[in-house]
Specification:
The complex is a heterodimer. Helices cover 53% and strands 7% of the residues of chain A. Chain A is α+β, with helices and mostly antiparallel strands. In chain A, strands 1-5-4-3-2 form a five-stranded mixed beta sheet. Chain B is an all-alpha fold. Chain B folds into two domains: 242 residues, no CATH class; 81 residues, no CATH class. Classes of the chains: A alpha+beta, B mainly alpha. The interface between A and B is large, with 65 and 61 residues.
């Protein structure tokens, strides 16, 4: 269910049949769940936010940011504005712009410090991965763009450079587990117990568990598939499929990492009902698709609780901004660990 | 119930400094609801069973701190309590240092519970009685109850920034209250009063306490004590707020080197008061007490906020880039301001606080604060003030960024979803 916010400029100007790719935006604004961008080739991206007025997803242009039902933080304004200036946007651009905005200090000094450490390590790791991938592919005649793709995806998924060698697939997955994979695995293990401990609406809980488990498993499989490529690089010579599926998953990776981090916030949540709604909205945004054949999300009609059930003495905006900054710190720590 | 009324003498004993962290304040400050001046304690038989005379505290502290193996760490934590000179630390295990004062208090309470669980030698007791002017027998009678307070510290005391209501585990709470009832009326009164003045959800505490009271041999007496504790809590807070307003009125804002670490009325105490007033809205018998409390807390919160704002405007911040620890504690302080506004605004009106916040925002946006970069200024003001409009400074910055791309109209291309990183694969 999509609610379109009417913009002066019609939002989709091409009549392409493409459905767009949902890229998660690591934001700090006080909204339920999280925000995502839907990007189309050669078009302005759209903002996807949980509809604060009811159920479903709200679609807005990146320029009409003031009509979203909540106040955007300066960090998000700068981030979104930067996204809007990209002609084509990739998940990697989002992560880079995010690090850049954080390093400028729009989300506080602690974030800034962590983002700087993360950015510094990235260049080194990038170069190391580039070297390793070319070593891996020497002597294999493959599709021209494949080496760049592999390099990017190994970098984005957080594989350690020393794992990128023929026959090291299992090592990459089990001994030098990428930090993001380990938190996804943790989340898969702790998902049901921690969500059940919230004691919210049992039906919603079940649906969140079902959708999230499936998505988290897909991400795990994505890691598995790419580690599998390492085991037998000779296979790559015959590798000629579209990467679209993988990119769709990669684009929501950071969102699922945030979901996993939010699970750890559950014991500290001021209100169980709102926490469940937060998690459900995030899952809904991440799994939302406007593809004609997409199955309607089971979370489409999960309604959001009103503010009356929120504890009176806690300032909701303040709490969520602070929590989101904390989540950003945690995800930056994962970036640092990868380097 | 006779209340621990406050004499003029006691009101005047507070220093003009305001609350300052020492091992004494960290140990005993959270016990304020059960501490009364010794003169009154000795006069009233009722007070003597449900409160601690204040002259006993210093001898107790000396005994607790005697040969305390971690005394040095506690002193270090207290010294670093303002967070301005925290040691370089790994961000992953910063939890230890996240709130040094809180950690120091926890260690002190643990130590106190440990020391008081062992019998005190008679020589020490005599010395205590000499310095405090109390009889050894009455000190000995108080000790088990005081030990219970420190042993159950995690139920009674909560960190000062935690405004989220604490929903205690009913079984744990029942165990604690049973233990208190076994130790006698004094321990029971201490436990109940402290549970209600801390951020515990009263809807859990009260029924649990009554359930425990019911199974006691003399149920009626224990139940009555429960009711008295609820009535008493409004009057206790009322007296405290009155005292705070009076104390703050005597303080002139002077230039300080940094922000206050401890406040008179912390955010979580204000939140507790707010919850109690809401509770009275459902139980009309406490209505009058709650109305009086509302009035005095509004006054105290307003006075405290005004003083904090005035002091903040006088602080001489560094003119060069701020060090990390200062910046981080500045951000935490800004969040505290916002919390105080939200809570204070709910006692009176938001309008009472708007002026102060506007003053702060203009102050930090000003060019004369040279240590903050523009992004830090924007972030600071955003934390102070929940504004729906982006600040002019941010708008200026946004205009400097590359302009948004307008989509080309009707580009009919072969539909390709491959991303640029695989662009050459096509």
């Amino acid at each position: 269910m999509e609610t379109l916010i009417v913009d002066p400029i019609p939002m989709r100007q091409t009549l392409s049949l493409s459905t767009g790719i949902t890229i998660f935006l690591p934001t700090t604004s006080p909204l339920c769940g999280g925000m995502a961008l839907r990007v189309y080739p050669e078009e302005q991206p759209q903002l996807l936010v949980p509809n604060p007025f009811g159920t479903g997803v709200m679609v807005a242009g990146v320029e009409g940011q003031d009509s979203l039902g909540f106040t955007l933080t300066a960090f998000d304004r700068v981030l979104i504005r930067q996204m809007a200036s990209f002609r084509t946007l990739t998940p990697q651009d989002v992560r880079e712009r995010f690090l850049d905005t954080a390093a400028k200090g729009f989300a506080g000094r602690e974030t800034q410090k962590l983002a700087r450490i993360a950015t510094n390590g990235r260049t080194v790791r990038r170069a190391a991965i580039h070297r390793k991938v070319s070593e891996l592919l020497t002597g294999i005649h493959l599709h021209p763009g494949l080496s760049a793709y592999l390099e990017n995806i190994f970098f984005h998924l957080g594989f350690a450079p020393e794992c990128i060698r023929a026959g090291r697939g299992a090592f990459a997955l089990n001994e030098r587990t990428p930090p993001r994979l380990s938190i996804i695995r943790n989340a898969l293990r702790g998902l049901a117990p921690s969500l059940n401990s919230l004691e919210g609406n049992a039906l919603t809980t079940e649906r969140v568990i079902a959708v999230a488990t499936e998505a988290l498993r897909r991400i795990e499989a994505l890691y598995g598939a790419h580690a599998g490529l390492l085991n037998d690089p000779a296979r790559l010579a015959h590798f000629n499929v579209s990467y679209e599926g993988a990119i769709r998953e990669v684009a929501t990776l950071d969102g699922w990492v945030r979901f996993a981090l939010m699970l750890e916030e559950i014991p500290r949540a001021p209100c169980a009902v709102h926490m469940l709604a937060d998690l459900a909205s995030l899952v809904q945004i991440l799994s939302h698709s406007n593809h004609a054949s997409a199955v309607r999300s089971p979370l489409a009609n999960v309604s959001r609780p009103s503010l009356s059930s929120w504890p009176h003495e806690v300032d909701r905006g303040l709490y969520i901004e602070e929590r989101n900054e904390r989540l950003i710190h945690m995800s930056l720590l994962y970036d640092i660990k990868e380097n | 119930m006779a209340l621990p009324a406050l004499s003029e003498a006691r009101r005047d004993q507070f220093s003009a400094e305001g609350p300052v962290a020492t091992s004494f304040t960290l140990l005993f400050r959270p016990l304020w609801p059960i501490i009364v001046p010794s003169t009154e304690w000795m006069k009233s038989s009722e007070l003597s069973v449900r409160s601690i005379p204040d002259t006993l505290l210093e001898p107790l502290r000396i005994w607790i701190m005697n040969c305390f193996p971690q005394a040095r760490l506690v002193a270090k934590l207290i010294e670093l309590g303002d967070g301005l000179h925290l040691p370089e630390r790994d961000p992953l295990d910063e939890t230890e240092w996240a709130d040094p004062l809180w950690r120091a208090s926890q260690m002190l309470w643990e130590r106190a519970a440990d020391v008081l669980s062992r019998p005190i030698p008679s020589a020490v007791l005599e010395e205590m009685s000499e310095t405090s002017g109390l009889r050894t027998a009455s000190i000995e009678a108080l000790l088990p109850a005081i030990q219970l307070v420190f042993a159950g510290a995690r139920h009674f005391f909560q960190p000062r920034k935690a405004v989220v209501p604490v929903i205690p585990d009913r079984e744990d709470l029942a165990l604690l209250l049973k233990e208190a009832a076994d130790r006698g009326v004094t321990a029971w009164c201490f436990a109940l009063t402290l549970l209600m003045t801390s951020r515990n959800e009263i809807d859990v505490v009260l029924p649990t306490a009554r359930a425990v009271a019911h199974i006691q041999p003399d149920a009626r007496m224990w139940l009555e004590l429960c009711d008295q504790a609820v009535t008493g809590v409004y009057q206790l807070f009322n007296a405290r707020c009155d005292r705070i307003s009076r104390e703050i009125a005597r303080i002139r804002p002077v230039e300080r080197s940094d922000r206050r670490v401890l406040l008179w009325l912390e955010a979580n105490e204000q939140a507790t008061i707010h919850a109690l007033i809401r509770f009275a809205g459902r139980c009309s018998i406490y209505g009058a007490a709650a109305a009086a409390l509302m009035e005095s807390v509004a006054k105290a919160a307003k006075a405290q906020f005004a003083l904090l704002v005035q002091e903040d405007l006088l602080i001489g911040w560094p003119v060069t880039t701020w060090p990390d620890s200062l910046m981080i504690s500045f951000e935490v302080g800004n969040r505290r301001f916002r919390q105080l506004v939200a809570l204070g605004g709910s006692f009176s009106r938001f309008a009472d606080y708007r002026g102060g916040i506007d003053q702060l925002v203009t102050h930090y946006m000003d060019d004369r604060i040279t240590g903050l970069s523009f992004a830090e200024k924007i972030h600071a003001c955003e934390m102070l003030q929940a504004s729906h409009k982006p600040s002019p400074m941010l708008l200026n910055y946004l205009q400097l960024l590359p302009s948004p791309v307008q989509g080309k109209i009707f580009v009919r291309k072969s539909v390709s979803l491959t991303m640029p990183w695989s662009a050459s694969a096509r």
